[in-house]
Each structure stands twice: as structure tokens, then as C-alpha cells.
Amino acid sequence: MTPLAPSRPGETSLEALRPTSPRAALVRAEARCLAAGERWTEPRRRTFELLVEAGRPVKAYDLVACYGPGRRPTKPPTVYRALDFLIDLGLVHKVETDNAFIACPRPDAARHSANFLICEVCGRADELDLGMEESLEAIAARLAFRLDRVVIEARGVCAACRFKAGRRLVNDQGL
After folding, report:
1. Gyration radius from the chain CA atoms
2. Were 128 and a residue from 43, 55, 59, 115 both cysteine, which residue would form a disulfide, CB within 3.0 to 4.6 Å?
3. Do 97 and 156 form a contact (C-beta atoms < 8 A)?
């Protein structure tokens, strides 16, 4: 098992946002890249592929380490450039509190702010659409504030971890 093995998905309505397969996610990402007039290079593809396979936030140096046996080794600047590109294209989000990166489960959607529920036990991060972007943009405009990005990251324990048999969590009522 690689360090980037996916976390076990819990039973949530957020599962509908996850791509049906890593291959489908790669195809959609490549199409988005080409539609933007950009090149889908091997470092960009491999970085995105690793993030999709992980299914959870991954640190850049873990991506470097997992670039792959049997593949050409890579250096941190290559991965960071690929991450910057993928973020700019809206295919990847940065989880600020962990300084980690996660593939966007909605690569076909318009650019959007990433809002996350992050599990402190398993590391799973579920992206949410809170529907607040337009309101925040309107407030910022009214105050003549240039809004560059919005980050909302709520930390806690996911349902799968809360209700795992035999697990006792501090301050959990079990409701």
C-alpha cells in the first residue's frame, strides 16, 4: 500500500461529487486543460493522477516521493509548478491548514472557492458548495475590497470515523 492510498469513504451525500473513476477524472482534467489552450504535460498529468488516486489531501513532498518507481524521478520544483498550474486551472485545491493539496471533485465546474470538512482522524477532506461566493463578492464590492480567494476549512470527525465499531472519541455523544 502506498502512502497515498485513498481514505475509506463514509456514507455521505458528498459521494456524488467524487469522480466515477480515476481514469474519468484524468480525461476530464485533460479536456479542461486543452480547452484552456494549455498543454497537458506529463508532470501535470502525474501530479493530478496521484491526487485523484489519494482521494485526500497530500503534501507536495509526499507527491515527489510517490512520483513512482519505474518512472523518471522528479524534483520538488517540478511538482510545485504542476500544482500551481492545476490550482490556477481549478483542478486542484490547497488545504491551507495542512499545506496539502487535493483534486477537485468537480473539475467540470466553473472556478470556485474550496470549502472543506476535514476529518482529524482519517485525514479525509470533503469539498462543500456553501453557495456563499456571490454574497461574499457583493459584500467585498460594496466595501471596495478586492477579493482574491476565500478559504473555509472546518475540522472535526467524519461519520465513518465517529461510528467505527469500538472507537471512542473524546467529546462525542454518539448521536
Report:
1. 17
2. 115
3. no
Strand, coil or helix: what is 53? helix
Coarse DSSP helix, strand, coil percentages of the chain, rounded to the nearest 5 percent: 40, 15, 45
The whole-number average pLDDT for the span 145-150 is: 85
Judged by average pLDDT, the poorest of 6-20, 44-58, 95-109, 120-134 is: 6-20
State the average pLDDT over residues 25-43.
92
**Residue 114 forms beta bridges with which residues?**
151
Alpha-carbon gap, residue 125 to 101, rounded angstroms: 10
Task: Pick the closest to residue 18 from 104, 138, 141, 135 (CA basis).
Answer: 104
pTM: 0.76
Q: Tell me the angle at which helices 42-54 and 22-35 cross, rounded to the nearest 10 degrees.
A: 140
DSSP, res 8: P
